[in-house]
């Protein structure tokens, strides 16, 4: 959507009334009633983005070009494409073209089919979303319209449980309160319902059809939907991603007074696309469609993550290409560079092309799919979802674990544990005293007929308790609802608020009703109801760190401003006291989340003045939030009466202590990144066993100069085994002033706790650790504020929790509780990495050995570039004859599950990358040279008289050698492994009868053929069995000592 502010008219051909001063319409005019024309009165036609959901990656024209491009930027595929294309050059042609295009076509077919299926599923989902039917309001009544036909300026009716089709201004609802709830879990991942408010002036209309008689302006853009209705919308608030903010004004003509009135529009008056209406029906005025909606603009397309094993294999592929090139040049050089020697070099390159195995990519991808299914089907970590199937091996290479605290290490299950009121303090075992004081104060109130104490002289303890309980029962954004059993449940955006309202219910002051205008409380002791009118609500924001509410007691007409918030901001707002800071520190050390509660009584004159100034700030179009906050601070937030301090406990997740201890023993360096205070975070770090027993805790707080930062870092240099606790301000200062020095010291520490961290800081720290250490980083979190950190990590793990599913949806792996990380890393991570390393090296070996045999064959025949194996043999070698046994290695395990989980120290070996390294690669290269040379040389020596049968002799020995090598690599036999070995052997023997071109059965069935092939196979493979036995005897792997 363009950001100009020219007047745009959206007109329908409608019957004109006399009041409009226009002639009546004809029937043809009325027939075009549903044709929606967007006209620019000054500039002509103006187009808005169509309201179409498009999640497809391709269309019918771009599918093949884009998919093929994505495939051929991969070194493997590009190399084999060039080799296959070279077969169209007569001078380079070796064997059948199908033997080169066949494997490449199979790989491409598998990939293209997968992409096509995935994109078709996206197409079906898009089509379903675009064809959903809605009702559009017009003067002639509601008319059905598909979602894709909705455009800016439409009045759309949305029913309960329907998806909101576009970004809309909320005009009216069927709910009497003028408010409705929406579910936003598909937008922000949060499971709690959000309250939305209809425009008061529109809600007061007698019926929906009255909307057709409204003349008004919504930020200046003229949208005429009837003769009498002219809503204007000026694009001063251009489309942007922030789902938590919206600024606008609605100016309309009051027909009773003929005066122009203005109402402010905020995010509470919006219905964002892709949310779901949870209560009532609503009518919305469409302001953004398609790509301009918040939902589409927040659809992230994070950078594709590539596993470390894929990067390592890509490096090895380039080395293999150099090996191939060197072998080709050597072969030509040994024969002398005569004639068209470069043609011979290319022919040898083609002959040795199997050194770079095209099947490696397919085998690894299929292996990753198997690992993903094994993880998802593991009943001990039920609910785990693998969202990025290309990263299972990364779980076995993690060295840094970055975790959120609230909802990740803790349950986000809050319980109010302490209440401090300056001179009195209450905990769980003395809460009955609060109930007694509250009942006493309420009974006195009922008897005296007054709801509040007239003066401070009579403010005894009971009244003070009543004040703070009433403040907690009123100052929130919680909405009660009743189920069929008349039990109360609470909806709120924060579990803290629900915990506090539940506590007030237990104390005897129950929230029974809440709408946009009123709050009703029931006093359990007397059965009496207290009713309050809501005058203003100031929601909690991460910037203000507090929320407030202005209410008026309907019985006494007294006006009160209640506020609660973090001690860091509230301490400067409340009246002077000498206990708040100390008690906040005490509660934080106990691991409790603190909230300061305060109130202020307002006179009617003071409130009227505030209301006037606040309305001016509300309708301002520049720096609205800053203006509103300035009015609140100057008129309300001065000399508030401090009522008390609450301490809410967030319980630890099940199994957190054991999990952190195991991961620490696995040599993972753990960072806890939280928004909590230093004291709270430190307490949780100790109680969760993140900090081990007797481990020193070193704090860095309130650093304000470069000299201080360097001093702290110098002090930290010698403390290599301590836990560093640093606050957000000091962290940012260190990152700005001495980034390299700080990260060098911090990354060496076993535990780091970063407090008061913003989401941006979390992502920055993640990237910094990755870039500086070049190690694999895993981030785990459960809330929307953890998404940026999760997406920045090498492996992101999201926990499905009370904060919603946003982190889970953005993550590579989704789990239901933190303790599942133990098995995910120590067992599944181990298996995935070890199996893929073994599988990839064996596939490389399979290509190397046949190339060595080809080289020996060519060398013995005057270095002629003639193919040893052609046609079905070369195709079947990597498929029918070896694929099943080789792929069965994805079921192998070097240790059993019990050992892997019991001894987390075994995980440390994995992070060194020894299972797939240059050392193991060159070891397999030497094995391939030995075996390929042994098979080829012995075949020629033992069958000198039957040289015509050299192909069947050497190929049979090669297949049996590969089957024995697979058996040699297996640590723990699985029935599928045994079945694949036997089945493959039978398939090979059976195929001899079907391929008479290569196999002479009269020769193969002789005893001489059998024993000589057995000797060749034994010579090529038996020494490796002997070496394996010797190594296990004198240099066993670390895990064998535990078995």
UniProtKB/TrEMBL annotation:
Listed SUPFAM superfamilies: Calcium ATPase, transduction domain A, Calcium ATPase, transmembrane domain M, HAD-like, Metal cation-transporting ATPase, ATP-binding domain N
Major subcellular site: membrane
Enzyme Commission code: 7.6.2.1
All residue ranges annotated as the P-type ATPase C-terminal domain in the record: 809-1036
Domain P-type ATPase A as annotated: residue spans: 141-294
Record's protein name: Phospholipid-transporting ATPase
Catalytic activity: ATP + H2O + phospholipidSide 1 = ADP + phosphate + phospholipidSide 2; a 1,2-diacyl-sn-glycero-3-phosphoethanolamine(out) + ATP + H2O = a 1,2-diacyl-sn-glycero-3-phosphoethanolamine(in) + ADP + phosphate + H(+)
Location within or outside the cell: Endomembrane system; Membrane
Natural source organism: Phycomyces blakesleeanus
UniProt-listed Pfam families: Cation_ATPase, E1-E2_ATPase, PhoLip_ATPase_C, PhoLip_ATPase_N
Membrane topology qualifier: Multi-pass membrane protein
Annotated NCBIfam families: ATPase-Plipid, ATPase_P-type
Keyword terms: ATP-binding, Magnesium, Membrane, Metal-binding, Nucleotide-binding, Translocase, Transmembrane, Transmembrane helix
Transmembrane annotation, as ranges: 60-82, 94-112, 316-334, 340-360, 843-863, 869-891, 921-941, 947-964, 976-997, 1009-1027
First-level EC class: translocase
InterPro entries associated with the record: ATPase_P-typ_cyto_dom_N, ATPase_P-typ_P_site, ATPase_P-typ_TM_dom_sf, ATPase_P-typ_transduc_dom_A_sf, ATPase_P-type_domA, HAD-like_sf, HAD_sf, P-type_ATPase_IV
Gene3D superfamilies named among the record's database cross-references: Calcium-transporting ATPase, cytoplasmic domain N, Calcium-transporting ATPase, cytoplasmic transduction domain A, HAD superfamily/HAD-like
Family the UniProt entry places it in: Belongs to the cation transport ATPase (P-type) (TC 3.A.3) family. Type IV subfamily.
All residue ranges annotated as the P-type ATPase N-terminal domain in the record: 45-99
């Amino acid at each position: 959507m363009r950001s100009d502010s020219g007047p745009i008219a959206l007109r329908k051909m409608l019957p004109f009334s006399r009041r409009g001063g226009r002639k009546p319409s004809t029937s043809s005019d009325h027939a075009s009633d549903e044709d929606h024309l967007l006209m620019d009165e000054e500039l002509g036609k103006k187009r808005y983005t169509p309201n179409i959901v498009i999640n497809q990656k391709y269309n019918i024209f771009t599918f093949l070009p884009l998919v093929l491009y994505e495939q051929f930027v991969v070194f493997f595929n590009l190399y084999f494409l060039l080799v296959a294309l070279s077969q169209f050059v007569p001078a380079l042609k070796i064997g059948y073209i199908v033997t080169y295009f066949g494997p490449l076509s199979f790989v491409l077919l598998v990939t293209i089919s997968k992409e096509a299926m995935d994109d078709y599923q996206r197409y079906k989902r898009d089509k379903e979303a675009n064809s959903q039917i809605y009702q559009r309001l017009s003067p002639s009544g509601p008319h059905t319209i598909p979602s894709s036909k909705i455009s800016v300026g439409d009045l759309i009716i949305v029913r309960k449980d329907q998806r909101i089709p576009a970004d809309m201004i909320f005009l009216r609802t069927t709910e009497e309160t003028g408010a409705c709830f929406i579910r936003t879990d598909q937008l922000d991942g949060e499971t709690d319902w959000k309250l939305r408010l209809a425009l008061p002036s529109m809600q007061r209309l007698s019926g929906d059809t009255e909307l057709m008689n409204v003349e008004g302006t919504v930020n200046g853009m003229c949208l005429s939907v009837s003769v009498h209705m002219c809503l204007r919308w000026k694009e001063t608030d251009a489309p942007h991603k922030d789902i938590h903010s919206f600024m606008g004004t609605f100016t309309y003509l009051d027909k009773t007074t003929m005066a122009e009135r203005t109402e402010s529009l905020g995010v509470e008056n919006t219905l964002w696309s892709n949310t779901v209406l949870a209560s009532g029906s609503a009518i919305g005025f469409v302001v953004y469609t398609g790509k301009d909606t918040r939902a589409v603009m927040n659809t992230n397309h994070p950078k594709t993550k590539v596993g470390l094993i894929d990067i390592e294999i890509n490096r090895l592929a380039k080395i293999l290409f150099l090996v191939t090139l060197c072998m080709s040049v050597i072969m030509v050089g040994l024969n002398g560079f005569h004639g068209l020697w470069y043609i011979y070099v290319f022919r040898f390159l083609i002959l040795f092309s199997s050194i770079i195995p095209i099947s490696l990519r397919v085998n690894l991808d299929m292996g990753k799919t198997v690992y993903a299914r094994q993880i998802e089907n593991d009943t001990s970590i039920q609910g785990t979802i693998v969202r990025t199937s290309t990263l299972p091996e990364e779980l076995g290479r993690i060295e840094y674990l970055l975790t959120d605290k609230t909802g990740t290490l803790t349950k986000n299950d809050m319980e109010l544990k302490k209440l401090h009121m300056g001179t009195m303090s209450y905990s769980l075992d003395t809460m009955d005293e609060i109930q007694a004081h509250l009942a006493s104060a309420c009974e006195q109130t009922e008897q005296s007929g007054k709801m509040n104490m007239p003066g401070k002289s009579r403010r005894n303890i009971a009244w003070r308790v009543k004040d703070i309980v009433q403040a907690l029962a009123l100052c929130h954004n919680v909405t009660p609802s009743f189920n069929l059993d008349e039990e109360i449940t609470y909806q709120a955006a924060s579990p803290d608020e629900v915990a506090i309202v539940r506590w007030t219910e237990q104390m005897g002051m129950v929230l029974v009703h809440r709408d946009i205008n009123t709050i009703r409380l029931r006093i359990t002791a007397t059965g009496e109801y207290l009713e309050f009118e809501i005058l203003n609500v100031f929601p909690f924001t991460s910037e203000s760190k507090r929320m407030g509410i202005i209410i008026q007691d309907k019985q006494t007409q007294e006006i009160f401003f209640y506020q609660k918030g973090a001690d860091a901001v509230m301490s400067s707002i409340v009246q002077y006291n000498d206990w708040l800071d100390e008690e906040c520190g005490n509660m934080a050390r106990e691991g409790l989340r603190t909230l300061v509660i305060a109130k202020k009584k307002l006179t009617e004159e003071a409130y009227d003045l505030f209301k006037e100034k606040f309305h001016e700030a509300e309708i301002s179009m520049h720096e609205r939030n800053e203006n509103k906050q300035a009015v609140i601070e100057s008129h309300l937030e001065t000399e508030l009466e401090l009522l008390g301090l609450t301490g809410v406990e967030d319980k630890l997740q099940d199994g957190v202590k054991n999990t952190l201890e195991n991961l620490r023993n696995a040599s993972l360096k753990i960072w806890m990144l939280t928004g909590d205070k230093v004291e709270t975070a430190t307490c949780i770090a100790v109680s969760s066993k993140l900090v081990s027993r007797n481990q020193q805790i070193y704090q860095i707080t309130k650093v304000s100069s470069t000299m201080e930062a360097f001093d702290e870092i110098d002090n930290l240099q010698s403390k290599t085994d301590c836990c560093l606790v640093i606050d957000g301000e000091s962290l940012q200062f260190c990152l700005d002033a001495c980034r390299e020095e700080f990260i060098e010291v911090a990354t060496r520490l076993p535990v780091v706790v970063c407090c008061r961290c913003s989401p941006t800081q979390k992502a920055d720290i993640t990237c910094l650790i990755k870039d500086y250490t070049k190690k694999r980083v895993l981030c785990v979190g459960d809330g929307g504020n953890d998404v940026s950190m999760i997406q920045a990590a090498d492996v992101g793990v999201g926990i499905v929790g009370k904060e919603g599913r946003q982190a889970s949806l953005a993550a590579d792996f989704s789990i239901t509780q933190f303790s599942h990380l133990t098995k995910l890393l120590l067992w599944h991570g181990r298996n995935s990495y070890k199996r893929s390393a073994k599988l990839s090296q064996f596939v490389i070996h399979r290509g190397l050995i046949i190339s060595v045999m080809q080289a020996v064959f060519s060398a013995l025949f005057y270095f002629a570039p003639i193919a040893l194996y052609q046609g079905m043999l070369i195709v079947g070698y990597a498929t029918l004859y070896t694929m099943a046994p080789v792929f069965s290695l994805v079921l192998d395990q070097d240790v059993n599950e019990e050992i892997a989980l019991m001894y987390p120290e075994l995980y440390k070996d994995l992070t060194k990358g020894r299972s797939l390294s240059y050392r193991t690669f060159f070891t397999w290269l030497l094995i391939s040279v030995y075996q390929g040379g042994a098979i080829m040389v012995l075949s020629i020596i033992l069958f000198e008289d039957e040289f015509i049968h050299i192909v069947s002799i050497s190929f049979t020995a090669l297949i049996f050698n590969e089957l024995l090598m697979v058996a040699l690599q297996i640590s723990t036999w699985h029935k599928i492994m045994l079945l694949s070995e036997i089945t493959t052997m039978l398939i090979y023997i059976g195929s001899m009868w079907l391929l008479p071109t290569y196999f002479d059965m009269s020769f193969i069935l002789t005893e001489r053929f059998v024993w000589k092939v057995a000797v060749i196979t034994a010579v090529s493979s038996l020494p490796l069995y002997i070496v394996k036995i010797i190594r296990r005897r004198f240099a066993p792997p670390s895990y064998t000592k535990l078995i």
